[in-house]
Amino acid sequence: MSAQDIICAVTVLFIIGMVWLRTRMQYARRGSPGTLQLQPAGRIYFAALAAVLVLGWLAAPPLGRLLWTDASVTPGLLRGIWFISTYYLFILVHRIIKTRGIEVYRLTA
Q: Engineering a disulfide at 38: which of 42, 79, 96, 104 sits with its beta carbon 3.0 to 4.6 angstroms away?
């Protein structure tokens, strides 16, 4: 595994952690008792996140080379662009499902 692949793997873990943390913060209430439980919609949400990130790992370099023909572009850069785009996409996805009344987490007593 090359150094670029290790950096990309750490980036994927960071993105998953940031989406998890940001989503949990949307449901947590300061000072309220109880714990947050992941709902079935939340499992689908995070499974979709994982699928998009894996797709990016595999598809970002070839797709990026089609759009960006510069020979000096690296697969790590293209994957990084995909990963940060995925983060922002899932902010939008979470807002959409939250406005429809679908909970990713539920506060339980």
A: 42
pLDDT in tens for each of the 109 residues of the chain?
788 889 999 999 999 999 999 998 888 776 677 788 999 999 999 999 999 999 999 999 898 888 887 777 888 889 999 999 999 999 999 999 999 999 999 888 7
Q: Please state the pTM of the whole predicted model.
A: 0.88
Phi and psi at 108, nearest 5°, equal -115, 150
Estimate to the nearest angstrom the gap between the alpha carbon of 81 and the chain centroid: 12
- 89-95 — which CB contacts under 8 Å span 24+ positions? 89/52, 90/19, 90/45, 90/49, 90/52, 91/22, 93/45, 93/48, 94/22, 94/23, 94/26, 94/45
In terms of phi and psi (left: phi > 0; alpha: psi -120 to 50; beta: otherwise), the region of 101 is left
